[in-house]
Amino acid sequence: MTEPEASVRTRPTIELERVSYRYPDGESAIEEVSFSLSPGERVVLLGGNGCGKSTLLKLLDALVVPGSGEIRYCGEAITPRRLRDREWSRRFRGEVGMVFQDPDAMLFNASVAEEIAYGPARLGMPEPLRHAQRWACRFGLEKYLDTPPYRLSGGEKQRLCLACVLACGPRLLLLDEPTANLDPRATGWLIDFLRDQSALTTLVSTQNLSLAGEMGERALILDERGKLLFDGPLDEALGCTELLWQANLAHSHRHRHDDGTEHRHVHVHRNWE
Ligand SMILES: Nc1ncnc2c1ncn2[C@@H]1O[C@H](COP(=O)(O)OP(=O)(O)OP(=O)(O)O)[C@@H](O)[C@H]1O
Ligand SMILES: [Mg+2]
């Protein structure tokens, strides 16, 4: 029986239920995390170094599978068996796109044009190279179409990775620190682009608190053990220094006054304001 269309539209894009993950040679990286993302939601993932942001995004992209708990995509559990199903896997790979924190981890083709065309070609989209040219132009990469990706600068590689993923037309976009290497103009472009994609569900990890406010309305914050410390309105999270301190997103340093006295207090720097 096919489901009524309304229930498909209101069903979460992706859900995690008590998901835990431990690297084979490491300590626990994600602990009992549960949340769901609704269609069109823009969510920001925050947390200090090593708290598990990249691991959580890899779990959502089914690059690693949970040690315990369950992840459901559009209501269907992502299981090893489903991932071995070529049709299911192809649909999932087309609909869920992830841009890695380290662009070099995802660039392997001989030229920028082939790199962007790779995903669309695998998905059976028509004229992948022509499609790639259009996406290269949108990202200001048209002059590099024949250039090997390793020759690009850090920010250009990051833009290329975004073009590769967006060219596949995803429904769920997972971005791991996407602005880390971008200059202010490219960052502004990305923020506007994400805001215009009302049909796209986005989860963006960042440690840049001033940009966080531009990239979503809801925050997920992980603590240093990979547990979900906060799930709620981003404004509320950004206004709570104690919460940010707990999540290693605020720092403390000494202030020296003219009269020679010194004191220490907690700071949140929003360097774009
Ligand atoms: N391939 C791996 N093998 C073993 N341990 C790993 C591996 N990748 C990450 N870890 C560990 O898992 C934990 C979470 O790492 P993760 O990369 O998810 O953190 P993060 O929040 O993305 O950090 P950052 O802000 O530095 O990018 C860390 O303790 C890290 O050392
Ligand atoms: Mg990371």
Describe the overall structure:
- The protein is of the alpha/beta class and 273 residues long.
- It has a single domain, classed as P-loop containing nucleotide triphosphate hydrolases (Rossmann fold, 3-Layer(aba) Sandwich), CATH 3.40.50.300.
- The protein is 34% helix and 25% strand.
- The protein is built from 11 helices and 12 strands.
- Strands 6-7-8-3-9-10 form a 6-stranded mixed sheet, with helices on both faces.
- Helix 5 packs across helix 6, helix 5 packs parallel to helix 7 and helix 6 packs across helix 7.
- The longest helix has 13 residues.
- The termini are far apart.
- Bound molecules: adenosine-5'-triphosphate and magnesium ion (MG).
- The site of magnesium ion (MG) has 4 residues, from helix 2.
